[in-house]
Design a protein that fits this description.
The chain is of the alpha+beta class. Helices cover about 25% and strands about 20% of the residues. The protein is built from six helices and nine strands. It has a six-stranded mixed beta sheet with strand order 4-3-7-6-5-9. A hairpin with a 2-residue loop joins strand 5 and strand 6. The protein is globular and about 45 Å long.
């Protein structure tokens, strides 16, 4: 598998979230991770429980490579562009996690990429709009939601080839990072600066 920063562990006390990432987090593959719109990654504890049952072994917070393990806040159905306040930080939902072979290798499960994608609960990448500290147990307060109804799960489905979702996802084009808009064939729908 090689070197990876996917192995996250819970930490005591507050952690600083900034536009360039989470203090103390290692990002090894800068080609695919660590962009401004991937400053943090949120995954649900309920989804960790689902995968624990599926795989027959216990997964704990951090095992999906997430910086934020959420309870009772469904990251996969969050709207692209939705803004959250957690602790002293303001975060914006930017994109789904695209499962990769490094992730499958970390969990040591053959075929995990396809299985993970088929479940359609990818969690959410987040940009940091207002740097601040977050502590375990801080509530997630939704500050705003865009008018479209495009979730990160919708974007993942289009990214994985569900062309029927394109017309729906178009509504969120201005809220998607430029790199993802280009990948999805939506770049022509917004200006070159996009949302940044």
């Amino acid at each position: 598998m090689g070197s990876t920063g996917i192995d996250k562990r819970p930490v005591p006390g507050p952690v600083r979230f900034t536009g360039s990432g989470v203090h103390g987090d290692a990002v090894v593959d800068r080609k695919h991770h660590g962009a401004w719109y991937q400053a943090a990654y949120a995954f649900d504890v309920e989804d960790l429980r689902f995968w624990s049952a599926e795989l027959g072994r216990e997964l704990v917070p951090g095992n999906a490579g997430e910086n934020l393990s959420l309870v009772g806040c469904d990251a996969s159905t969050a709207l692209v562009g939705e803004r959250w306040r957690i602790g002293g930080a303001v975060l914006r939902v930017t994109a789904p996690r695209d499962p990769c072979r490094v992730f499958a290798g970390f969990w040591e499960v053959k075929g995990l990429v396809k299985r993970f994608a088929a479940v359609g609960r990818p969690g959410a990448y987040l940009a940091v709009e207002q740097p601040g500290e977050i502590t375990a147990g801080d509530p997630v307060d939704v500050l705003s939601r865009p008018e479209h109804a495009v979730t990160v799960a919708d974007v993942l489905a289009l990214n994985l080839g569900d062309r029927d979702r394109r017309e729906h996802v178009v509504a969120a084009a201005a809220d998607l990072p430029e790199k993802l808009r280009v990948k999805l064939g939506l770049a022509e729908l917004t200006g070159p600066e996009g949302i940044r």
